[in-house]
Amino acid sequence: MYPYNTEYMGHTFHIPVLGLGFSVDTPIKVAKFGISSVASIVDDMLIERMREYHTEKRNETFFPISTKEHDSRARRITAYLNLMERLVREDFEILRNTPFEPLSDITRYFDLLPESSPLKVKYRQMLKTTDADLQSALQQELRAEMTSGSVDVNIMSKVDKMNLSAKKEPLPEEYSDALAALRGFADSNLQSSVVLSAGMNPRLYSYLENFDCFLPAQSGEPVKKLILKVSDFRSAFIQAKFLAKKGVWVSEFRIESGLNCGGHAFATDGFLLGPILEEFKSRRADMVSELFSIYQPALTAKSVIVNQAPEMKISVQGGIGTAEENSFLIDYYGMDATGWGSPFLLVPEATNVDNETLSNLVDATGEDFYISGSSPLGIPFNNFRKSTAEKQRLERISKGRPGSPCTKKFLVSNTEFTEQPICTASREYQNLKIKQLQAEELAAEEYRVKYERIVEKLCLCEGLTASAYRKNDMLKPKENNAVAICPGPNVAYFSGVFSLDEMVKHIYGKLNLLPGSQRPNMFINELNLYVDYLKKDIETHLNDLSDKKAKYFAKFTDQLLQGIEYYRGLIPQIHDQAETYIDRMKSQLEEAETRLRMLWGGKTQSV
């Protein structure tokens, strides 16, 4: 018996942010069915066009917000979020009031719920009731207890370019990209959460306390909540303490696998997901207590009185692929929810993936998904070899014109050659950098390696939005239609196009979308990704290995070995798998350990 047995009224999973455009309007599609999801608010140009698209789709008049208007970025975001909030509310009310009949949306709403939901139990009771009056009463109770999914938003903390006025003068810091996006959310009608990812940004974190919506309301909970996407306990605790001192409470930690995820990959120094979850599980109560001891006096100083800590949830995402894994994470580790991201790229009802990219994903093998140096942010990035953006990048190189036109400038950061920052994926930067490289008169192999690092960078601002434009027939004349997509490696095991109902049923074990698959356990998949990651790093530094780097590799290796031992001890706790699965998992741990020891000669250090 697992140590936790939490009851949930609704769904126990959410759909995390998927790039810039793949989930930008997912809430409009799934929230009415009680499913929570996250939309990116990084690109206000995309957001403005999606607002126009959905406004006109409802036969309403669209009033544009020009970039020349004051605070246009924040106002565009607010306007789009208000539109999503209204459309979700209207669609949900229509659904709530439909009759309980076969194939109706309200019936679909309840069919999608997990069997463990008390709401689902009451729904089953209603269906079995033969007394018409009692059945009608139960239906009214069910309608009253239904809730729509949360319309959450994501801000990448480090994507925080400072902006200039129309006169090319620096604007105050509250007009930076991240702060303006936060203001757009804070000023909206949404009563939901902002998910901050990609590490800590003190300027952004400090800005949160300027908005009363993040302070406790009469219920003791903030009107708008804060979620941190984190990769380990230590960094999560540090960030939460910083915020607590400002009187801002972290309502949820979303733990994400360092490498077995989509988008940017924030690898740990060998800390694996299982041991990380174990630390959150064992230290959760103490963490809440300590954070509240910081939070309470910070609020008192603001004349806000709280007598108990607000709710703090913990969820996990990255590489989950089966109902058994989903249940284990919730039951054994006490997770409040799980995140299912990349598999939903194969669900056209929920996400914006154009037909060509969708077809390429369905036909892909594991070799087509890889961790690359494509991101201009300099952070490892999950890439897809068959994407049209990757094909375009190679074509431009073959024509002697590497790099991309830089139109949106969200990721400009390099001032190596210019006074104003430019993007390392831009044609301007790559041309200047290649000329510098040519002047160095390097040996052929060294030149090739450095050249590849320059031209590997990919334009993500356009690439990660193109699919949304293509799928919804929103492309403008001469607009770049090459799609960049960043699925996690887990999507390689899903071969097909699925309905929303099929994917949700798969998550809850009512349907198996991976029949006959020899897919390894999610923890094994992540472990192997880390061994591959370490192997590549070691090979890169073999010819110039410093003492510092050698110690780093030894510590990394030792941490992975400790993780392997942890998993050996965890296997007896896995009760819902066949003996052959357990034996295979043990064998895969042995194989990973052998590979790891061969990489670093078995030399480890005590951590």
Which keywords apply here?
alpha/beta, 8-stranded parallel beta barrel, disordered C terminus
Give a written overview of the molecule.
The chain is an alpha/beta fold and 607 residues long. The chain has three domains: 333 residues, no CATH class; 125 residues, no CATH class; 88 residues, no CATH class. 45% of the residues lie in helices and 8% in strands. It has an eight-stranded parallel β-barrel, surrounded by four helices. A two-stranded antiparallel sheet has the order 9-10.
Describe the largest sheet.
8 strands, parallel, barrel
Distance between the termini: 33 Å
Number of structural units classed as domains: 3
How many helices does DSSP assign?
Answer: 20
What is the residue-averaged pLDDT? 94
The percent of residues in helical segments reads 40-55%
Strand count: 10
The strand order across the widest sheet is: 1-2-3-4-5-6-7-8
Any idea what the radius of gyration is?
25 Å
Question: Structural class, from helix and strand content?
Answer: alpha/beta
Low-confidence runs: 1-7, 602-607
Order of SSEs, N→C?
A: EHEHHHHHEHEHEHEHEHEHEEHHHHHHHH
What is the beta-strand fraction?
A: 5-15%
Shape: globular
What assembly state would you assign to the polypeptide chains in this entry?
Answer: single chain
What's the layout of helices and strands?
Layout: E1 13-15, H1 26-30, E2 36-40, H2 44-57, H3 72-96, H4 105-112, H5 118-128, H6 132-145, E3 151-156, H7 177-186, E4 193-197, H8 202-207, E5 225-230, H9 233-245, E6 250-256, H10 273-300, E7 313-317, H11 323-333, E8 337-339, H12 355-362, E9 369-372, E10 381-384, H13 388-398, H14 427-438, H15 444-455, H16 460-471, H17 500-507, H18 522-541, H19 547-570, H20 579-599
Parallel strand pairs: 1-2, 1-8, 2-3, 3-4, 4-5, 5-6, 6-7, 7-8
Antiparallel strand pairs: 9-10
